[in-house]
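> call design_seq(struct)
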């Protein structure tokens, strides 16, 4: 056998060994989730135990509307789970099962260092086939989608095939760390699947534990993208001629009370330029309870307003 063929065979063998080792380590922490509404079956999916005392991360849509939630481990044990918290925007839910023994669990890692082309493994229970394993590569780490009027950024796109029932299962790197939770695929497409990055999950877990939900900043405005004339952008020293216009203002909301009006053009928030709606969403993400400076263009003049975001209704 030629040297090149031997090297290729060794590489393939190393790949198989790596996948097998990861699945053996993480697979025990992957669970099947079945939800019921009354006496009827509401939904099914997957989840992953992330602490030895039984906290489980899954998708919100897996348990949406459930009256009761049953979790089955790979060893056949079954538990009734309680809902700790959920967030529809990020499509994340946190469940809890309890036992006097410790549960097998996987580690949530920070997904911010993921690179395009990196190999990943998806583990779940698609179409009732327990502990199904698929592999692929990261296609993009910067996808965005719109949910509930908000833009969710940095969604992971990958090629590890997913099917109904994979939702809520882990996306794992080749060190056996959970770097995402599988949430969607494009029907009819080949290898276009999406996962909520673990960086988002790690960020919202404390809020789900403390409040049962994610507390978001609310300023009470509806906005739309606006293109400024080039001479106006130059006059105010803007790097872009794009900004965000206020289409509607809730009169008794934080923005309305601060003096913002319909037709105002938002140029910056706390000094950071706002060229797109996504920029505004991002700037407001961690502003709950503190005053924020809105720099707006009104009647050809730049005016600053201090707005104190409230908790989202």
């Amino acid at each position: 056998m030629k040297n090149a063929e031997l090297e290729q065979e060794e590489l393939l063998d190393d790949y198989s060994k790596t996948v097998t080792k990861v699945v053996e380590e993480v697979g025990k922490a992957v669970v099947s989730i079945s939800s019921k509404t009354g006496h009827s079956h509401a939904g099914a999916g997957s989840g992953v135990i992330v602490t030895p005392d039984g906290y489980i991360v899954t998708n919100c849509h897996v348990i949406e509307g459930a009256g009761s939630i049953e979790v089955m481990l790979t060893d056949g044990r079954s538990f009734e789970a309680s809902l700790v918290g959920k967030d529809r925007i990020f499509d994340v839910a946190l469940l809890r099962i309890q036992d006097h023994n410790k549960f097998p669990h996987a580690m949530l890692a920070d997904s911010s260092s993921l690179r395009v082309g990196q190999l990943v493994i998806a583990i779940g229970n698609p179409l009732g086939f327990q502990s199904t394993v698929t592999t692929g590569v990261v296609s993009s780490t910067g996808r965005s989608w719109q949910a509930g009027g908000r833009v969710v950024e940095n969604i992971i796109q990958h090629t590890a095939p997913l099917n109904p029932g994979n939702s809520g299962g882990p996306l794992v790197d080749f060190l056996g760390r959970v770097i995402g939770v599988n949430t969607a695929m494009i029907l009819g497409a080949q290898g276009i699947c999406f996962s909520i990055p673990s960086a988002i999950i790690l960020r919202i877990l404390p809020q789900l534990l403390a409040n049962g939900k994610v507390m978001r900043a609310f300023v009470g405005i509806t906005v739309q993208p606006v293109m400024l004339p080039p001479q106006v952008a130059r006059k105010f020293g803007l790097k872009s001629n794009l900004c965000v216009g206020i289409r509607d203002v809730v009169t008794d909301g934080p923005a309305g009370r601060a003096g913002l009006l319909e037709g105002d053009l938002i140029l910056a928030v706390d000094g950071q330029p706002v060229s797109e709606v996504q920029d505004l969403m991002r700037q407001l993400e961690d502003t709950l309870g503190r005053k924020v400076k809105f720099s707006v263009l009104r009647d050809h003049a730049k005016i600053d307003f201090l707005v104190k975001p409230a908790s989202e209704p």
